[in-house]
From TrEMBL:
<dbReference type="GO" id="GO:0003677">
    <property type="term" value="F:DNA binding"/>
</dbReference>
<dbReference type="GO" id="GO:0009380">
    <property type="term" value="C:excinuclease repair complex"/>
</dbReference>
<dbReference type="GO" id="GO:0009432">
    <property type="term" value="P:SOS response"/>
</dbReference>
<dbReference type="InterPro" id="IPR050066">
    <property type="entry name" value="UvrABC_protein_C"/>
</dbReference>
<keyword id="KW-0963">Cytoplasm</keyword>
<dbReference type="GO" id="GO:0009381">
    <property type="term" value="F:excinuclease ABC activity"/>
</dbReference>
<dbReference type="Pfam" id="PF22920">
    <property type="entry name" value="UvrC_RNaseH"/>
</dbReference>
<keyword id="KW-0234">DNA repair</keyword>
<keyword id="KW-0227">DNA damage</keyword>
<keyword id="KW-0228">DNA excision</keyword>
<feature type="domain" description="GIY-YIG">
    <location>
        <begin position="20"/>
        <end position="99"/>
    </location>
</feature>
<protein>
    <recommendedName>
        <fullName>UvrABC system protein C</fullName>
    </recommendedName>
</protein>
<keyword id="KW-0742">SOS response</keyword>
<dbReference type="InterPro" id="IPR036876">
    <property type="entry name" value="UVR_dom_sf"/>
</dbReference>
<dbReference type="InterPro" id="IPR038476">
    <property type="entry name" value="UvrC_RNase_H_dom_sf"/>
</dbReference>
<comment type="subunit">
    <text>Interacts with UvrB in an incision complex.</text>
</comment>
<dbReference type="InterPro" id="IPR047296">
    <property type="entry name" value="GIY-YIG_UvrC_Cho"/>
</dbReference>
């Protein structure tokens, strides 16, 4: 395989590992230069489209695709964030195949102007004059909707007059139409105090920051007041604004007026893999984000990994002629002596914390892509890693290569059944699944039913000399687990088989004798496998329970037919399974099975001979 084919194969493998998430992708040529930046609602679907032979690809796109030697991607929270980040990166990188964006094409902001009786309006010019800027907004429609909400809720001035105390006191202004129609309270002539106006500005800023509770409370109260006064049209208009408020989403940190020039370095070390995401923010905009893997050799601590990552980031910056940043956001404080000229911040809230979470998300996705690649190229290594991880997370004496999970199913005590599903090496082994009819328990008693099923299951395995599972998972909390553990103790299996309970509501893991729940990583593979086997046991049990209920219903229905005995009913159920099939069967065929007289009586009962009315299939 030549070098070009190796490059194409490498790119195809990276495309296959892309997540189904919104984000930004970058195509690089053989020299490592970014030649194109694009946004996507679904990264995998969008990037894959470039590498499929399509007639609608332009000549320019075909030429660009032939130059792609590598690709990078950045995952963000929404499609709007992807649009903003794409805008930042195109301006910063000036890729050859992108339409170059000028500053005049910047996205709009909403500004609260730093002046007496501040105005609130849209602008595309970001001027650091003490004014408060909110946004930017990737959708002009959304921005206009927010401004309309604010102006409808708070009567603020829209004129450009100088409303300094001296100008107002001279009495040179007069009220305009906006005052007469109720959109302004007339601060230009002293009808509204600065204190009262400041209260309206504070409320408007709450909306712009994403705190919608005051506005929602106001609109709700106003809508009820108008409705009680029988002003239904006005109430409907207020309701429309309330619905618009509920659909309004808070601003993005991809571009933020509260941030200046800083960098973010996040390190993730988990399951034997270490990744670092580095983001650079210039004038409040993310202009660089890159995730790379670090290969540890000596079980390095998180502090050592962070120091190594910072060294790599700063060394690369020096090579590019970029000075050391004044502030770096990190997940933990590094050794101050290593980088004495840099101010490190571990954020607790706000936009800086959101940036750190975004960096963490990119690290976790890079780790997931790495594991997917290992699963594809080396499945045995992938399985070994997961089993070792489960053993560590669940504190088990051995790797859980063989897992069994049990679930009960009944409705108000009728047709009680139980299911047992088996996982081997983290995957379902459906040939080993088992169903159980509850025999000794009367009524809806899940605890006693679980005890019966475990006693029967493992009593038989012990009697036949079959291998026991490495882990037993019980669908339920402390109560279910205690009865299950008691049954295993009676069989002499205490200490020989590990058993845990998995409660559904909070995905809590319980251990025998421990009243307190344990929590696994919500995004980790250990909990994912436990949830998978629990859900599979529930699905398998419900399916069997429905089949049994259906058969019992048919039996009881057929027992109402005069002249049909147990033997005839069993023959009918075995051959036809449903009442509708019996109703559609010719009388002669039924007569061969159960006799001519009983066949005629059955068809009369089902309404097939006289009226053609067919009973619903059960």
């Amino acid at each position: 395989m030549d070098s070009d084919e190796n490059i194409r194969q490498s790119v195809r493998e990276k495309v296959a590992l892309l997540p189904d998430s919104p984000g930004v992708y970058q195509f690089l040529n053989a020299e490592g230069i970014v030649i194109y930046v694009g946004k996507a609602k679904n990264l995998k679907r969008r990037v894959s489209s470039y590498f499929v032979s399509r007639a609608d690809h332009t000549r320019k796109v075909q030429v660009m695709v032939r130059q792609i030697a590598d690709l990078r991607h950045i995952v963000v929270g929404s499609e709007a964030d992807a649009l903003l980040l794409e805008n930042n990166l195109i301006k910063e990188l000036q890729p050859r195949y992108n339409i170059l964006l000028k500053d005049s094409k910047s996205y709009p902001w909403i500004v609260v102007k730093n002046e007496p009786f501040p105005r609130i309006f849209s602008t595309r010019k970001f001027v650091r004059d003490g004014s408060a800027y909110f946004g930017p907004y990737s959708s002009v429609t959304m921005q206009r909707a927010v401004l309309e909400l604010i102006r409808g809720l708070y009567p603020l001035r829209t004129c450009k007059l100088n409303l300094s105390p001296q100008a107002v006191s001279r009495g040179t202004y007069s009220v305009c139409l906006e005052y007469h129609i109720g959109n302004c309270k007339g601060p230009c002539v002293g009808y509204q105090s600065e204190e009262d106006y400041a209260g309206s500005i504070a409320g408007a800023k709450n909306i712009l920051r994403g705190d919608l509770r005051p506005a929602e409370e106001y609109f709700t109260a106003e809508m009820k007041r108008l409705a009680e006064g029988l002003h239904f049209e006005q109430a409907a208009r207020v309701k429309d604004k309330l619905e618009m408020l509920s659909s309004y989403s808070s601003r993005s940190v991809i571009v933020s007026a509260t941030l200046t020039n800083l960098e973010v370095v996040y390190v993730l070390n988990d399951e034997g893999a270490s990744f670092c995401n580095h983001m650079r923010i210039v004038h409040g905009a993310v202009v660089h984000s890159f995730t790379f893997e670090m290969r540890g050799r000596l079980d390095e601590s998180p502090d050592e990994l962070l120091a190594f990552a910072l060294g790599q980031v700063f060394s690369q910056a020096r090579e590019e002629g970029i000075p050391l940043p004044r502030e770096v956001i990190v997940p933990m404080m590094p050794d101050a002596e290593l980088f004495p000229t840099v101010n490190f911040t571990v954020p607790q809230r706000g936009d800086k914390l959101e940036l750190l979470r975004l960096a963490e998300k990119n690290c976790k996705l890079a780790r997931l892509e790495k594991f997917k690649q290992i699963e594809k190229t080396d499945p045995d290594r992938h399985t070994d890693r997961i089993m070792a991880k489960m053993q560590k997370d669940l504190n088990l004496p051995v790797e859980p290569r063989y897992i069994e999970c049990f679930d009960n199913s009944n409705i108000q005590g009728t047709n009680p059944v139980a299911s047992c599903v088996v996982f081997r090496d983290g995957r379902p082994s459906k040939k080993d699944y088992r169903h159980f009819n509850i025999k000794t328990v009367v009524g809806a008693n899940d605890f006693a039913s679980m005890e019966e099923v475990l006693t029967r299951r493992y009593g038989r395995l012990i009697e036949e000399g079959q291998p026991l599972p490495d882990l037993i998972v019980i669908d339920g909390g402390k109560g279910q687990l205690s009865f299950a553990f008691a049954a295993l103790e009676k069989l002499g299996l205490r200490g020989k088989v590990s058993v845990v309970g998995l409660a559904k509501r909070m995905e809590e893991v319980y251990y025998p004798g421990d009243p307190f729940p344990h929590y696994l990583d919500k995004t980790g593979e250990s909990l994912r496998i436990l949830m998978h086997i629990r859900d599979e046991a529930h699905r398998f049990g419900i399916t069997f329970h429905r089949q049994k209920r259906s058969i019992n219903f048919l039996k009881s229905e057929l027992e109402n037919v005069p002249g049909l005995g147990r033997t005839s009913i069993e023959r009918l159920l075995k051959k036809y399974r449903t009442l509708s099939r019996m109703a559609r069967t010719p009388e002669a065929e039924l007569a061969e099975l159960i006799g001519a007289g009983r066949a005629r009586i059955l068809l009369d009962y089902l309404g097939n001979r006289s009226s053609g009315d067919k009973r619903p299939e059960s």
